[in-house]
From TrEMBL, chain B:
A Pfam short name: BPD_transp_1
PROSITE patterns per record: ABC_TM1
Taxonomic classification: Bacteria, Bacillati, Actinomycetota, Actinomycetes, Micrococcales
CDD domains: TM_PBP2
Family from the record: Belongs to the binding-protein-dependent transport system permease family.
Membrane topology: Multi-pass membrane protein
Segments crossing the lipid bilayer: 26-46, 89-110, 122-142, 180-198, 218-238, 278-299
Keywords, in A-Z order: Membrane, Transmembrane, Transmembrane helix, Transport
Protein name: Sugar ABC transporter permease
Source organism of this protein record: Occultella gossypii
Annotated localization: Cell membrane; Membrane
Domain ABC transmembrane type-1: from-to ranges: 85-299
Length: 275, 308
């Protein structure tokens, strides 16, 4: 209470100006991208129609008229949901065990996979997956995306499990549950928000991932980022359609961030504060 | 209830369940650990073996062991390797310094509740969650020399147009700014989370003792926030050293016509998938990985020192 009254008026005004500038810098490029996606290429090339132009949906219809684009959308969805689900299945129990038993070496190993540059693994992965005839299929992409999700989930969930008192499990044991039963029936329901945080974050990272699908996807399993990258393979760029494709791929992420703001923030800051 | 139910299912199930519960530490953790060993440890060993060979072209082709030749030729390569190291360092140092500075400033501004704070906190999530490939394309259009918005703004201000990403001399700095745009919000989020946990008493005490705003920040807030600051620094430095999408999408393979944005990551990718120099690439990625682990260890030591 006292702190607020001590803040001078000048500070409040300066803060407002600085934060408006900051907010505009965050927002302006995205607005520009959205505007361009509704412009004809003639309007994009005309500086006088930066903000005043007749909006058109032709870029979007051009993008979605390509049957492939919908396929790529579905691919990204399948790989995002698949890798997130499987990674939760192995990551959440592992995080629980690591938190309860303090498995420093194992958790260190899992977290090292958060740090390793993916280019280090791509050549061996490519040859391992190729020898198993998995290159170009969904399985290699789901597995590779799980490699991002698992450390992320373990990282988030170790912090979450720290907040669940062990006494709860002991009480459940007294009531006749096994250790694993207590984990499944007592602990898991308590950490649903944490699981939501990990799931949302994991899906975002999978959706946004570029390099794995660049190397491992085939024509029919290509994900959206690779599809968009292939747009600029030609001599002249169709900026309007490209921006429409970029808006289409980013929009689901922005909607997720708006609806699940609490979870996104919790996931991004997990572990950083407590250490 | 459940004990009765499991009891009925026969002794095999009971025995399995007993075994799983007795060894629950490993039963729960093993799938994830095996996954990471299969996808990281095994490929790293494979890479280590490759790095001692002259494998190239196709991995099926026979190769000879050349031992440390790849390492020697990489460490002696002043045309591609050392410039790539330098670019990685400069990109990371400049981008992360800006991110930390701006991030700290904005986090302090957002520390106390005020009207519109929620809005700012939502808006700054947008760069963070936007798909990096789309972000790269978006900035490619904004920095497009003839039609881009950046040169349009310079025109309004009466300044000469720039080549931005397309000009080899300004490409790397321009892309640093894009990195700052995308990742400063991450730093803000982490620092804000740290600031929220700080006790108010010392602030008040310092205020009553007549400390200025700057003194309060430097002598009271910053020391208490040190662990969080180092955590943010650690996270951002490692990710900045690994920047790939932005650089590869905007400048393509090899980091542009004169390799102007070729960092270690971009160079390693080109060696692996454009030149198919697998032996050389393996040696390079291991050197690259060691550099990253080195940064991790040094920063983590600082972090642990501060926690005590």
């Amino acid at each position: 209470m006292t702190t607020r009254s001590l803040e001078s008026r000048g500070f409040v005004g300066l803060r407002a100006v600085l934060l408006i500038v900051f907010g505009l810098i965050c927002l302006a490029p995205i607005v520009w991208m959205v505007l361009a996606s509704f412009k004809t290429n003639i309007d994009i090339y005309d500086p006088s129609s930066t903000f005043s132009f007749t909006p058109t949906l032709q870029n979007y219809s051009a993008v979605f008229a390509q049957a492939d684009f919908l396929q790529f959308f579905i691919n990204s969805l399948i790989i995002g949901v698949g890798s997130t689900g499987l990674a939760l299945l192995i990551g959440v129990p592992a995080a629980f065990s690591m938190q309860r038993f303090g498995m420093a070496k194992s958790s260190g190993l899992v977290l090292l996979s958060r740090v390793i540059p993916h280019v280090t693994l791509l050549v061996p992965w490519y040859f391992i997956f190729a020898s198993l005839q998995m290159v170009g299929g969904y399985s290699s992409l789901v597995i590779s995306h799980m490699f991002i999700s698992v450390p992320l989930i373990v990282w988030v969930m170790i912090g979450v499990f720290e907040g669940v008192p062990e006494e709860l499990e002991e009480a459940a044991r007294v009531d006749g549950l096994t250790h694993i039963g207590a984990f499944r029936r007592i602990v898991i329901p308590l950490v649903v928000p944490g699981i939501a945080t990990s799931a949302i974050l994991s899906f975002i990272f999978s959706w946004n991932n570029f390099v794995f699908a660049l190397v491992l996807s085939g024509n029919s399993t290509r994900t959206l980022p690779v599809a968009i990258f292939n747009f600029i393979g030609y001599a002249s760029i169709d900026w309007g359609a490209l921006m429409a494709a970029c808006v289409s791929i980013t929009a689901p992420m922005i909607v997720m961030a708006l609806l699940g703001q609490k979870y996104v923030v919790a996931g991004m800051t997990a572990g950083a504060v407590k250490g | 209830m459940s004990a009765v139910a499991t009891g009925k299912r026969g002794s095999l199930w009971q025995g399995l369940s007993d075994w799983a519960n007795r060894h629950r530490k490993w039963v729960l953790a093993a799938p994830a650990i095996i996954f990471v060993i299969a996808l990281m440890v095994v490929p790293l060993l494979y890479t280590l073996v490759l790095s001692f060979t002259d494998a190239q072209g196709s991995i099926q082709r026979a190769f000879d062991f050349v031992w440390f030749e790849n390492y020697i030729s990489i460490l002696g390569d002043t045309a591609r390797f050392w410039p790539a190291v330098w670019r990685t360092v400069i990109f990371t140092a400049v981008a992360v310094t800006l991110e930390m500075t701006i991030g700290m400033a904005v986090a302090l501004l957002l520390r106390r509740p005020f009207m519109g704070r929620g809005l700012v906190r939502v808006v700054m999530l947008l760069p963070l969650v936007a798909t990096p490939v789309a972000v790269a394309m978006m900035w490619l259009l904004i920095f497009e020399p003839t039609v881009g918005f950046a040169n349009q703004v310079l025109g309004w201000l009466g300044l000469p147009a720039q080549g931005w990403i397309s000009d080899p001399s300004t490409a790397l700095p321009t892309l640093m700014l894009v990195d700052v745009w995308q990742w400063t919000p991450m730093v803000i989020l982490i620092l804000l989370a740290g600031l929220v946990g700080l006790p108010e008493e010392q602030q008040e005490a310092a205020r009553i003792d007549g400390a200025s705003t700057w003194q309060r920040f430097w002598h009271v807030t910053l020391p208490m926030l040190k662990t969080t600051v180092i955590a943010a620094l650690l996270l951002r430095s490692i990710d900045a050293m690994k920047t790939f999408d932005l650089l590869y999408v905007t400048k393509g393979t090899g980091g542009g016509s004169s390799h102007e944005v070729e960092t270690l990551n971009i160079y390693a990718y080109a060696l692996s998938f454009d030149y198919n120099e697998y032996g050389m690439a393996a040696a390079l990625v291991l050197i690259y990985f060691l550099i990253i682990v080195g940064v991790l260890v040094v920063l983590n030591m600082r972090r642990k020192e501060n926690r005590r």
